[in-house]
Amino acid sequence: MRPFDYARAEAVSDAAKGSAAGATIIAGGTNLLDLMKLEVMAPERLVDINRLPLGEIEETEEGGLKIGALVPNADLAADQRVRRDYPVLSRALLAGASGQLRNKATTGGNLCQRTRCYYFYDTSEPCNKREPGSGCRAIGGFNRIHAILGASDACIATHPSDMAVAMRALKADVEIESADGSRRTVPVDDFYRLPHDTPHIETELEAGDVITAVILPAPVTSEQRYRKVRDRASYAFALVSVAAVVSLEEGRIADVTLAFGGLAHCPWRDEAVEARLKGQAPSRALFAEAADLLLKDATGQGHNDFKIPLTKRTMIAVLADACGLETGE
Amino acid sequence: MKTTLKVNGEERELEADSRVSLLDALRNHFRLTGSKKGCDHGQCGACTVMVNGRRINSCLTLACMHDGDEITTIEGLGTPGSLSPMQDAFVRHDGYQCGYCTPGQICSATAMLEEAKAGWPSVVTEDLESRPDLTDEEISERMSGNLCRCAAYPNIVDAIREVAE
Amino acid sequence: MTKTLTMDKPDDRRRLDHMAQAVIGKPLDRPDGPLKVSGTAPYAAEYEIENCAHGVLLRAATMGTVKSLNRAKIEALPGVLGVFSSDEFLRNPAQGMAGEAPVQGVGEVAYVGEVIGLVVAETFEQARHASYAFAPEIEPAGHIVDPEAVEPEPQDSEAVDQGDLAGAMRDASHSVDVVYRTEGHAAAAMEPHASIAVWDGPKLTLYGAYQMLKFNRKELADSLGLDEADVRIVSRYVGGGFGSKLGISQEGIAAAVAARGLGRPVSVVMTRQQVFESIMRRTETKQHMRLAADAEGRLTGLGHESLISNLPDEEFAEPVPQSTHFLYGGENRKISLNVARIHRPAAGSVRAPGEAVGMPVLENAMDELAHAVGIDPVELRKKNLPECHPETGIPFGTRKYAECMDEGAKRFGWADRNRVPGGLREGEWLIGHGMAGASRVNMTETAKARVTLSANGTATVETDMTDIGTGSYTVLGQVAAEMLGLDPAKVEVKLGDTDLPPGSGSGGSIGASSCGSAVFLACEDVRTQICEALGCEEADLTLKDGEAVTGNRRMSLADALGADELTGEGEFNPGETSEDYAQAGYGAYFCEVAVNSVTGETRVRRMLGVYAAGRILNEKTARSQCLGGMTWGIGTALTEELVHDERNGKIVNRDLAEYHVPVNLDVPQLNVVFLEEREDAACPIQSKGIGELGFCGAAGAITNAIYNATGVRVRDYPVTLDKLLAGLPD
Asked: Which of A253, B39, B62, C424 has CB atoms 3.0–4.6 Å from C418's, for a disulfide?
């Protein structure tokens, strides 16, 4: 960890100004400090936002929830309103990390988690995400946890968050305050970038931006599921995860949002897949067709080829469960 | 830089590099070596302490971020001659072997019972809206952030179950 | 006078059974427990040493010849006291019981991640930062890292070619001819390797995390060109070993070299990544199994030929077929072990070297044969138990293998299982049952101990033996308490310091039997002295509850001793019984798994292990050893796998987030049962090793259950979900 100047922000504007001047914002720090110890990230200045009043969950005028950026993952998962109205979010949070980490990791920080790519984590290896233009060793290397959708020749990393997958399925908005004091909201749908040839740029955040909240729209009557598939029973990153919000009316799928973890550089959503499902009577055959549509451009890297059938199988099972299909129906 | 921490009820001044993690502050500066470094990256749980009553990985936070915070370490829970109920249960149920993950397990378990009392769900909770029963599966899931390579897990679950009851 | 026993013949006196205190075997709590649970037991890096500087090891990211360390850049960084590297630095740790320096000199980088230097600074934070500025100039060498890309070296010590296996296979009514693979494993002890080196003139004290101090002292002295008498190692508490701390390792030498250079103590703790990259791995294996059987399932032939790997110049070769040699019959046998010399990190002992990976595969092959023959796997095994060692003809020591299987089958409800693979389903989950045998060769090692009995009714046990979580503090105290008639709370056990009499060290499951016997002998020595003081025969002396009874006299120890204290010394040596009897611990596992039919995720739902390992010295700590072993079985079967980058052999998953040791939720409540047994051929306390037995074969029971659940036979460990997907129902 290289030496850094440490400052505590007393107001969001302090943090924004600090960020504009090149400081890195630290909240829970569970990912940032992990990376700083390895000098994968080596900021010269840290601005600590933990004392800012961004730790509340409030109801919005629209009937949704405004989740302060500093709300710990544990609190968000345990919030009665979240458990009742947004169970997919609660489930996703609880599927992530450990009890200790969830107590520290924050809502805003979780959105900004960096990839777990082994080569990104090893500073002796080239990595376009860590050092733009240096190359990608994951391509041609061990790539079990890597992307099957949306990858580029520059980067095949995946986004490790569970929470962000649920946020995308819930069509949440990210509230951002900038150094000039302006505020904007960016839908999670638009918050992340695919790697293309700039994998070091992961989100729409710019210097001077501070995430202040994540806003959930008013809840809709729906079945919500989050299913995470991983290599051990707990405390492991997703190989594949599926978040589903499904509204059924008169035996048909009136509305559906699906988001996927473990497949791409960001939580993945494909509206064409949702369109294929909407208005249809649920059946495994339909779900299989939709999964094929989702995966039509999926490309394995060798070790991660299994994610293609695994995604299809998991997606079918999640939808079948959400739609109340019996086994084999 | 200067930081004041309330460690096990006692105010302690830390005058150190801003890079010092809370774990290294405890171990290297305050000589409280009960909190262990197993991975230094939040992947094993051996460094678990309670900050303001909540369990966290002390390796993944900076000491300077905790000015004024109340830190409870294993040394604050009990001493060899006066063990806390959880410490005592770990001894009786052989909830350890080498002992290196043990302080983290015990801090984690102690705080985890408070989380369960507060009605927090876990990923294995069937019904998110009800108060979860602390079944063996619930205990195991909630303790999965604490690796034990000796694998005393069944004994750890036994010890925690006993204290919970 | 030291009481010495060399095991040239079985000791059937069974003296521990005839003592009066009745504490041996009891499930007593660990005396070191209160220190461990309160965080006050000191591990290697935790000794408070004045003026101690902090070192961080420097790794090479490229194989080849080191041209320059480029020290200047690092030395200019704040707080840096120096960059150290020397011909004394180790390429890799010493192998277990080497007793001499391993390959030294780090000018030629033999594997990615090799430690080639040390940076020392005033603070850990400064040293860590400086370590990332390390940019040595290395002329790359294109070493081979694929074990199948080189011609392997056969290990003659394991080779057996008896009869005509090819002919037996040809003539067999039923046969199995399959290739299994297992991936490399990391010991991943929770405490990273750590040393503090303190010099006092020519004398070096190393506070380290080591398993076998009498060997480690020699290795350290040899590595540094010191007289052994000038070296002291202290390892009172060791945060897990599992083989990874058998031999002196890089951080110990580096700390000593730097402390010598700086004239002040230096502490070096490996990062978790460095532990993964530069400490011994268990080799990957490729195992060709052949079983030939007659119509009833009697083995006529058995082949077990393995390919393993190691670095050049490393003598250790994972003894994959170690138990295959004797577990089952079959007159036509071909067993071989072949080492590929490649440039992955050094391979060495990781818990139960040999059986850890050889037994599950043997037991998978037996399961395949049981299906081929159409008989119960338990019956197949019982049918093939040889009368004597099938290769050497020597008799077995105690062998309750069949009893373990029978007892396990009964307790588990084995007879009621579904026998049709893939035939039992609960919702999304496919349920399966499997069993496997456990076997681990039993070994002992020379050990000395000193026991002092005081007139106040307390005793002290001293040996340089370590307790790496195994329960040495507990069982050695229990042996002494039994022999001397004391409440175990009155016995203090001092371990982990080379100033104490040299014990066996912890490794190969030798510790409890070897050091327990040394303590037993030292107590016999004390008892003899009491008899002399009282003028009675040993047979007439009863010690119980701090009192001595002989004939009709009952007296306090103060009166019996005739002195303030009596000191006895014991020395135990392995002898001819090691050659005269095929000694092993045995057991059987029964397991129920659930495999998710959608995702291929496997969960172990219940597992039973029944073991016979001679006398159980403490039922509680022995059970914990077996819980640990069975959990290692879960890891081996399902999650653990060192991944090497095909391009340079580098360990890709070098941390605890990506190398998946089982977590609490992976492990159900496990059942452990011990059968009563006394192994007179092993040692005078009739015990056999238990620390590894509980792991040997465990993974096989789980993978056999996966086959029963799914009908998919995965011959490539670990059985991660991707290997099952294609065979699962849609």
From this structure: C424
Same domain, B152 and B119: yes
Contact C29 B143 (CB under 8 A): no
Residue A263 lies in a domain: yes
Q: Please give the residue of chain C at the shortest CA–CA distance from B147.
A: C663
Mean pLDDT, to the nearest integer, of A279-298?
Answer: 98
Residue type, C239: G
C: neighbours with 3+ CB pairs under 8 Å? Answer: A, B
β C332-341/C299-310 pair status: parallel
Residue that is written with structure tokens 């409890």 in the block: C512
DSSP B151: -
User: What was the pLDDT predicted at A328?
Assistant: 62
| Cross-chain Cβ contact C663/A234 below 8 Å | yes
A271, burial (CB in 10 Å: exposed 0-12, middle 13-18, buried 19+): exposed
The pLDDT value recorded for residue A80 is 97
Q: Give the pLDDT confidence score for residue C516 in this predicted structure.
A: 98
**Count of structural domains within chain A:** 2
In this predicted structure, what is the pLDDT of residue A59? 98
Residues B50 and B72 in one domain: yes
- Closest residue on chain C to B153 (Cα): C664
Fold adopted by C396-442+583-730: Aldehyde Oxidoreductase; domain 4 (3.30.365)
**Region(s) of chain C under CATH 3.30.365.10:** 2-41+444-579, 44-143+190-278, 396-442+583-730
Per-residue pLDDT at A326: 83
CB atoms within 10 A of CB C9: 12
Question: In terms of Cα–Cα distance, which of C183, C352, C187, C216 is closest to C278?
Answer: C187
Report in angstroms the alpha-carbon separations of C53 from A66, B146, C118.
49, 30, 12
Q: What is the pLDDT of residue C730?
A: 84
Judgement on whether residues B105 and B47 belong to the same structural domain of the protein: no
Task: Kindly indicate the confidence band of residue A299, based on its pLDDT and cuts at 50, 70 and 90.
Answer: very high
CATH topology of domain C2-41+444-579: Aldehyde Oxidoreductase; domain 4 (3.30.365)
Quick: pLDDT tens for A1-10.
999 999 999 9
Q: Is pLDDT at A327 greater than 90 in this prediction?
A: no
Band of residue A329 on the pLDDT scale cut at 50, 70, 90: low
CATH number at residue B124: 1.10.150.120
Q: Say yes or no: B126 contacts chain C, CB-CB below 8 A.
A: no
Chains sharing 3 or more CB pairs under 8 A with chain B: A, C
Residues of chain C with pLDDT under 50: none
**Mutant choice from C80, C190, C272 vs B, greatest count of B C-beta within 10 A:** C190
| CATH label of the domain that carries residue B34 | 3.10.20.30
Give the orientation angle of helix A307-322 with respect to helix A284-294, to 10 degrees.
140
Q: Which long-range contacts (CB under 8 A, 24 or more apart) does C217-220 make?
A: C217/C498, C218/C99, C218/C100, C219/C94, C219/C98, C219/C99, C219/C100, C219/C101, C219/C102, C219/C247, C219/C248, C220/C248, C220/C252, C220/C253, C220/C256
Report the amino acid identity of residue A243: A
Indicate yes or no: CB of A317 within 8 angstroms of CB of C664. no
Q: Which residues of C are catalytic?
A: 692
The nearest CA of chain B is from the CA of A240 a distance in Å of: 16
Domain boundary among B77, B94, B111: B77
Domain span holding position B158: 85-164
Q: Which residues of C touch A233 (CB under 8 A)?
A: 601, 603, 663, 665-666
Q: Which of B144, B146, B147 to mutate to test the interface with A (most CBs of A within 10 A)?
A: B144
CA distance C104 to chain B (A): 27
**Structural domain of A37:** 5-48
Residue of A83, A101, A104 with shortest CB distance to B121: A83
**Binary contact (A231, C721; C-beta < 8 A):** yes
> Token match 């079983």: residue?
C291
- Residues in chain A within 8 Å Cβ distance of C643: 142, 144
Query: Do B94 and B48 fall into the same domain?
Result: no
pLDDT tens-digit readout, B117-156: 999 999 999 999 999 999 999 999 999 999 999 999 999 9
Residues of chain B with C-beta less than 8 angstroms from the C-beta of C240: 97-98, 100, 149-150
